[in-house]
Amino acid sequence: MEVKSLFIIAISSIFINNFVLSRFLGICPYIGVSKKIDSAIGMGFAVVFVMTLASMATWLINNFLLKPSPSNLFYHLFSAKEPPDLMFLKTIAFILVIAALVQFVEMVIQKLSPGLYRSLGIYLPLITTNCAILGVTILNLDLNYSFIESIVHGFSAGVGFTLALILMAGIRERLELAPIPEALKGIPIAFIMAGLMSIAFLGFSGLKIG
Asked: Residue 121: left (phi > 0), alpha (psi -120 to 50), or beta?
């Protein structure tokens, strides 16, 4: 496996196909937790951790439990005539893995940083239903990534999510001191800024890294 291909996957996930600003996944925590930089950084690290481990776990589950191949563990354990096709359980299995990882992250943050845990609020357990997390695991399969490529893709997608979150938090902190019309304060101006950031990131679509 070439390092160049891993580098292309990383750059593409962070800038060109950013999960928030290009694929428009994970908008809920992106808007909800981007009021303060501290909470944005905490959420970003949590998402990076969950995305990376979810990419690892779901790749293994798909290739050794769900996929009808000679490497299927059920095929060897039960001496079946042919490998079972359990791909219809993919979404349920992936969500269960993500939920378990989020629960682990939630317990760690609550123990080590109660202040961050309170600031993240409901958005921390909502990582379980964050479509960006499920999206990266399904994309790993659709793009036929290897185990290492899946890990790099998951980690890079988390980094891209964190980058968008921190940039948005920095802008919104500055907007708190800006003379904004009353009708645009809060969520409306946040969505406008999100749209402008998305347009700015569109400039990376012409980046040639192949």
From this structure: left
